[in-house]
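User: I'm curious what two different proteins look like when written out as structure tokens. Can you demonstrate?

Assistant: Sure. I'll show them one after the other, since each token string lines up with its own sequence. Here's the first protein:
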Amino acid sequence: MSKQARRTRTPKASLGIAPSDWATLGVCLFVLGFAAPIPSQLPLLALVGGALLGAFLDKSPRQGAVPRPFMAAAVFFLLLMALSIFLSDDRVRSLELSAAWVPAGLLFVVLSERLRSPAHIRAVYASFSLVALGLSGALLAGRWFYGANPHAWLSTLGLPVLVVPNDCHFLALLTPLSLILIDRQPRSPLGIMALVSIGLTGLAILAVGSRGAALTLVACLVSTGTLLRPRLGLALGLGALGVIGVGDAALGFPLASKFTHVVDTRISLWIIAWEMFLDAPWMGHGPHTYRTLYTAYFEAIAFPAWVRPDPWGTEVPWAHNLYLELLAERGIIGFFSFLGIVGMGTFYALRVRQEGSRELSILASGTIGVLAGLGLSGVFEASLLRIWLVVLLLAVLGIIGQLAALLRAESVKTKPVTGRARS
């Protein structure tokens, strides 16, 4: 090796951090920070700093690229969201409550473009698992010190992603990522941490009594476990149901009692969302305008006698159904743009799982599990009003884009060499 070559390689060796490591560090710090009770600017600064360092220091060409159809669907979805804000019936509210899309969009770009290896993706999974561990511990501590009514004490925790008890859907949706960490090295410190994270998530869901989160938890574990090994999915499903059942019995069946309500008050919220959609079917009324228009529609609609109005009696911020929310606030175009980007992400994740190496296949299984859980959660709770949903959605889509790029890089390496190249 020449002296000049040694001089050019010394800085990287002395620092011990590759350009893509800086980007990964920024992503991990953002993931750990956005859910913590700290100023929101700090995680964003970490993300921007890591992205800039990774971009300026990375001089090597990339072997694989994110598929163009996937990126086109993502760009179209984000641009359409910006247009829906501009056309909103309540532009100020739509703009203020859509602020989370800015860092989440940057997170998507960094994950899909700046990371370079499966190890980087595992680091992101570990960060989300740590978030679930910390938030679950906080919920359990709140239940222990403040009592059985989380509505009374949840705000005292000061956690930006836990505003109402049903926000523990977020914790359930993180379990597939923890399960991937366990599958590889179950006895390693990282595997043990992920296992504890899943266990505490189940206990936290019991502590706050969220039936939707319990269903989402089971769906996430079963779908991800089945993708890893079919028998594992069945075992995890039965185990999760057993643990939840025993825990609920120990608490006096507060969770089971919620499943006895055949006709839920959410139906009135869904009817309002549907009527909003009929009045603005193409582009909707604008992001997060459900609360703005709630009272007017509630007073104007003649609900059937069997429908019970929502017990809170005030403006409800979201429709408690992601799909009706999309129709009401973003219209048919926004609804299908959302289905398009999620469907495109699922397609490429399934392709990576089928065609990629074992490492990539396992990582892709985690993203599919998250999207499966999100699909169920969207039926009765999830909302784009939640910061955690915006961040998690674009993070998972960014990871899928990166996995698709790594799959392309693998195919380039294994591509047969032509006769001229051999000669």
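Here's a second, unrelated protein for contrast:
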Amino acid sequence: MTSWDFFDTLCGRACGDPWRVFDLVAGEDYRRVRQEAERRSDKTWPGIFRAVADVTGWTKARVEDLERREWDAEVAGAFPIVENVRRVKAGDVIVTDTYFDDRQIRQLATKIGIPAGVRIVRSWDDKWSGRWWQSPQSAAAGLHIGDNPRSDFANPRQHGRPAELYRAGAKNRHELEAEKAGQWETAGAMRAARLQCPYAAGSPQAVIWDGAASLNVRFLILAAALVKEYVLAAKPRRVFFVSRDAILLGEAYRRLYAEDVGIFHASRETLRRPTESFKKYAADLAEGSLFVDLHGTGRTVRQFCQTTGIQLAYVFVCGPRRMLPEFTRLVDLRGIPAGTAVEVMNYHDEGRVIDVVGSKPVRAPLEYDVETVRIHQAATLCGISAACRPPARVSPAEVADAAVAISRGVPGHLLRQHEVEHRSSVSPTRPAAASAADAARSRAARR
């Protein structure tokens, strides 16, 4: 039998630090009231909210509403720390210092996938004080695993219990950087994605997952916030995110702001050599719509608009120095070669669009490594789904910093594939797949 700590060992909070739940409920003023009430209370969940009423004089209805909202936020933000939850077996025991009661811990445990046969032992501070480790029930258990150096490691070892300190739940440097920049909601989502990795620690798949969780989740959440500001000012009838590179950005936008957005199925090929069916498709969507692309110069869009007479209102999240002046870029990457890296981290697991017939995309075979792309996608969507709320006002400089971080962490083999495949994707005379000679020349050119 193994005994387990609960919070930050088995169960994470998507907001990050536990006290951030109070910020989610009613802001910093409520956080201060809530923390003071906890200090004055009997350290039980009902007792804390009785103390909230005593401290503030608020009505019973208001206090009950805050209690309900806080619990709802706890449940909504709970996620499994997958590498540990997978190790839990029926007959194990959860030992936790908390103000939650047994019913509440059981509800959270069920949500994150803990087996029903796991026993729960909860108290206010028995682990921290050492009382639990002196009890006969504690002696009956074997290894204890937890993240707190005192409660979960030093104290059990002092009382002759084997203990394992879980360290991976600590914030990594990317999460700490985001938090330091005031992006705590985003840092929490990044960590939630990282700790839900389904692959063995240290495996190639886990490395790919970790990169997407640490880099792409931050970029997309911040970029979506910047797009939202632009949309509020532009007031389009509808917003479309351009496939394939902006599909994940569109998903981040949709989930953060609960808005219905569309996908514009297009590619350089369809814009440069549009069929009649594609022209009809674009014309049907164009009026009053805003098309959001991830990165580009605008040249292909200009060519399409000039040759067809169909005007597409495009905005690019990231624009290079050579971007055409008639297009808007939200983030200036002048002098920073991060645009291609951002595209690489946002591949989609379907082939590029070569036509649209009856509003349905016709695709070429996927030209990139499908396993890597799907791992990137899954990790990114995991983080986007975990975001507890949209970030506060975001500056273009913050999004640029996130793009630069991506350029430093993009997988090299995908970047090389992009350099060959993306260049050839609009050429009718070259095959879709890169030859070994192409790849070799690409590598040589980068040295």
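A detail about the second structure: Residues 204-234 form the longest helix (31 residues).
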